Amino acid sequence: GKDECLVPVDFQAAGLLRDDDTFKHLVAPLQEGALLTCVLDCCHSGTILDLPYVFKADEEGLDAVESGQVNNLMPNADFDLGKMLQCIKDHPALAAGGAAITGLAYFTGGRQRASLVGMEVAKVLSAEDKKAACLGAAQSLFGQFFGR
User: Fold this and answer.
1) Phi, psi of 54 (to 5 degrees)
2) What pLDDT is recorded for position 147?
3) What does the pLDDT look like over 6-43, one tens digit per residue?
4) Phi/psi at 146 (5° precision)
5) CA atoms of 84 and 17, how far apart (whole Å)
6) pTM of the full structure
């Protein structure tokens, strides 16, 4: 897919903010059930965050928000599942191990534990330093599961 970017005021010195980075640092770390509100002054806010869905702020969409009926968001035609698949292709053993561990967590601890494990696996897969990310994930999960 195409890359989108935000142009911050200091872009000449610090560079552009790519959609891959906004997703990696802002969206991917969110825990299940967390609420993130982003106000972006751009015409393609669904793609700048690399979300798999979009919200259209037209009359119908705003009425649905007001009535609490926003249940189904429209699929984002520009969503790039390939980024996720590339990560799996680049690290197949880690991805397979993460899937197995997440499945085991689901069957032994339920959806909530599986979600926690899945989020940590996603962080490890997207991290530059896999070893440090694995250690951090293990420490985080140990603390969450055993209260330490």
Assistant:
1) -135, 155
2) 66
3) 888 888 999 888 887 888 888 877 777 777 877 776 66
4) -115, 5
5) 19
6) 0.44
Comparing C-alpha atoms, which of 113, 115, 122 is closest to residue 142?
A: 113
Phi, psi of 105 (to 5 degrees): -60, -40
How wide is the angle at C-alpha 62 spanned by C-alphas 67 and 4, nearest 5°? 135
Q: Rounded distance, CA 19 to CA 25, Å?
A: 10
Tell me the per-residue pLDDT of 84-105, one tens digit each, with 9 for 90 and over.
677 677 778 877 877 777 777 7
- Cα–Cα distances in angstroms (integers) from residue 101 to residues 84, 98, 106, 114, 115, in the given order: 18, 5, 9, 8, 11
Decide: 50 and 79 in contact? Cβ < 8 Å.
Answer: yes
Cα separation, 135 vs 17, in Å, equals 28
List Cβ neighbours of 82 (8 Å cut-off, separation of 6 or more). 1
Kind of pairing, strands 74-75 and 53-54?
antiparallel
